[in-house]
Amino acid sequence: MILKEFKPKDSHKLCLIICVTKSYEEAVLISKSLLINRFAACISIFPKIESIYLWKDRIEETKETLLLIKTINENQSNVFEEIKKNHSYEIPEIISIIPNKVEFNYLNWVFNIVKKNN
């Protein structure tokens, strides 16, 4: 059986946004805010990751919590702004990735959750 490939328009493509927070509690606060506003359909939380980075000319080692936020491309700005509004870092790490392929039913589910915001 040949499956027909679905090509969503750019604004409806899945977007993964990565963000780290200083605590699990802050991650949950940001996640709930994104979900309540329907800026995201799902957020995976990875607590207790270890980050090593340069900050103000010093090597820092910090335990952080990683968020993997699933939304659509046209919601990127809303997600970025909502994170910045609720984030404690001076310069929060917020990175957007557009995947090449996404399973159709999953993409449809994400779109139907977040489109109610648009």
Number of domains: 1
Number of beta strands: 4
Shape verdict: elongated
Major sheet strand order = 2-3-1-4
Helix and strand arrangement:
Blueprint: E1 14-21, H1 24-36, E2 42-55, E3 58-72, H2 76-86, E4 94-97, H3 104-114
Helix pairs in contact: 1-2
Protein name: Putative divalent-cation tolerance protein CutA
GO molecular function: copper ion binding
GO biological process, one term: response to metal ion
Short synopsis of the structure:
This protein has 118 residues and is of the alpha+beta class. Helix content is 30%, strand content 35%. It has a single domain (25-117), classed as Alpha-Beta Plaits (2-Layer Sandwich), CATH 3.30.70.
Describe the structure.
- The protein has 118 residues and is of the alpha+beta class.
- The protein has one domain (25-117): Alpha-Beta Plaits.
- The protein is 30% helix and 35% strand.
- It is built from three helices and four strands.
- The protein has helices at 24-36, 76-86, 104-114; strands at 14-21, 42-55, 58-72, 94-97.
- The chain has a four-stranded antiparallel sheet.
- β2 (42-55) and β3 (58-72) form a beta hairpin.
- α1 (24-36) packs across α2.
- The longest helix is centred in the first third of the chain and has 13 residues, at 24-36.
- The chain is elongated.
- The protein starts with 13 loop residues before the first strand and ends with a helix.
- The model has no long low-confidence stretch (mean pLDDT 90).
- One of its GO terms (biological process) is response to metal ion.
- InterPro entries: Ion_tolerance_CutA, N-reg_PII-like_a/b, N-reg_PII/ATP_PRibTrfase_C.
- Pfam families: CutA1.
- This is Putative divalent-cation tolerance protein CutA.
- One of its GO terms (molecular function) is copper ion binding.
